Amino acid sequence: MSASPSVKTGIVRCATYFPVADVAAAGAHYREVLGFACEYAAGEPQEFALYVRGACSIMLRRVPDAALLRPNEAQGGTWDVFLWVDDLDAIYSELTSSGATIVYSPIVQPYGMREFAVRDSSGYVLGFGQECAS
User: Fold this and answer.
1) 46-51 own/partner pairs: CB under 8 Å, 24+ apart
2) Residue 82's beta-bridge partner residues?
3) 74: exposed, middle or buried (Cβ count in 10 Å: 0-12, 13-18, 19+)
């Protein structure tokens, strides 16, 4: 029996999917610089891996032609993924201390977010933000 259109089922997890040239190298960056943990990896050399930090999951998948990769920034976008955090200053300090490539430092946006962004080793941009106090 299917659920009626007015009944919503819960989403229990979501993951961003990043095609990358080298899963092991990208994974090392997520682990060592961005503070994620590897939940799953497969293949030799690695073809796929899932990295998690808190409620954020990022899937990395090896692609044969890295020249085809197009992070959103290269297409006029800002981020490839945005992460809401509960202590922006703490995570900014952590990531700068671990050597993350900062795209822009914490700023207050007109839409009520204080945010910053980093670039991963594959060129993807991760935005981090915290709602400004009213």
Assistant:
1) 47/23, 48/23, 49/23, 49/24, 50/15, 51/27
2) 127
3) exposed
13-56 confidence digits (pLDDT tens): 889 999 999 999 999 999 999 999 999 999 999 999 999 999 99
The number of distinct structural domains making up the chain is 1
Q: Report the CATH number that the domain containing residue 54 is assigned in CATH.
A: 3.10.180.10
Q: Which two tokens stand for residue 27?
A: 């994974």
Rounded Cα–Cα distance for residues 29 and 34 (Å): 7
Rounded Cα distance between 102 and 59, Å, is 22
Side chain identity, residue 68: L
DSSP 124: -
